[in-house]
């Protein structure tokens, strides 16, 4: 699609897609994807608005870099259009497929110099009223502390926590993206939650 890249300037204040029944969303994704691959830019824009916030958040938390996350989102959606046989709905959701592409791009950026992380509170604020300034400040600080703690988790723990708890993906899809068994997802998630709780409560020890 000639103008596809024009849609790929991520807006962190764009609200995330609403929650839908998984089967209904899958059917809509397939329909929109078929039209997008046939050159329908509006269908592509719909897919982008629906899934880019979650893909960006996933890549952003993996890398700590807005620019790296934006690059990962761009590559994920361009890859979605170019790989005509890549997405198989029998293997998982379109969101999981996009995160899988973004994961590869994000991990290539992990060792690069990380940039100052911006506020993505707009992604988290879906469906809420705009808070009062003091509430917004306190919430922003709490989110900064949470995201900072998540990024300090070991990479293997951090990834499953993001996929299952923040992206709300089923264990099977998280396992497919990370390339591990479902049992390993459960184990890592449990340990990630325990480590994160210790960091947030200030009880983590060096051992």
Q: If helices are DSSP runs of H or I spanning 4 or more residues, what is the number of helices?
A: 9
Stretches where pLDDT is under 50 for at least 5 consecutive residues are: 1-20, 111-132
- Straight-line distance between termini: 52 Å
Number of spatially distinct domains: 2
CATH third-tier fold name of the largest domain: Rna Polymerase Sigma Factor, Chain: A
N-to-C order of helices and strands: HHHHHHHHH
- CA radius of gyration is 17 Å
Strand content: under 5%
CATH secondary-structure class of the largest domain: Mainly Alpha
**Helical percentage:** 55-70%
| Average pLDDT over all residues | 75
By secondary-structure content and strand pairing, the structural class works out as mainly alpha
Oligomeric form: single chain
Strand-helix topology:
Blueprint: H1 22-37, H2 41-63, H3 66-82, H4 94-109, H5 121-124, H6 133-152, H7 155-166, H8 171-178, H9 182-201
Helix pairs in contact: 1-2, 2-3, 2-4, 3-4, 4-8, 7-8, 7-9, 8-9
Briefly characterize the structure.
The protein is an all-alpha fold.
Key structural traits:
Arc Repressor Mutant, subunit A, Rna Polymerase Sigma Factor, Chain: A, disordered N terminus, 2 domains, globular, 207 residues, mainly alpha
């Amino acid at each position: 699609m000639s103008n596809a890249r024009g849609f790929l300037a991520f807006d962190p204040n764009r609200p995330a897609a609403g929650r839908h029944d998984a089967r209904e969303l899958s059917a809509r994704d397939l329909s929109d994807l078929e039209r997008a691959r046939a050159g329908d830019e509006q269908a592509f824009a719909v897919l982008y608005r629906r899934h880019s916030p979650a893909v960006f958040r996933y890549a952003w938390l993996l890398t700590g870099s807005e620019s790296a996350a934006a690059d990962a989102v761009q590559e994920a959606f361009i890859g979605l259009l170019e790989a005509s046989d890549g997405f198989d709905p029998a293997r998982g959701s379109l969101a999981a497929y996009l995160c899988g592409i973004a994961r590869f791009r994000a991990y290539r950026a992990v060792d690069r110099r990380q940039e100052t992380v911006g506020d993505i509170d707009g992604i988290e604020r879906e469906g809420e009223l705009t808070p009062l300034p003091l509430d917004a400040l306190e919430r922003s600080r709490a989110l900064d502390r949470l995201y900072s703690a998540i990024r300090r988790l070991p990479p293997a723990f951090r990834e499953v926590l993001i996929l299952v708890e923040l992206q709300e993906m089923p264990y099977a899809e998280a396992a497919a993206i990370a390339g591990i068994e479902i049992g390993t997802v459960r184990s890592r998630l449990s340990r990630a939650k325990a480590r994160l709780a210790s960091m947030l409560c200030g009880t983590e020890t060096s051992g």
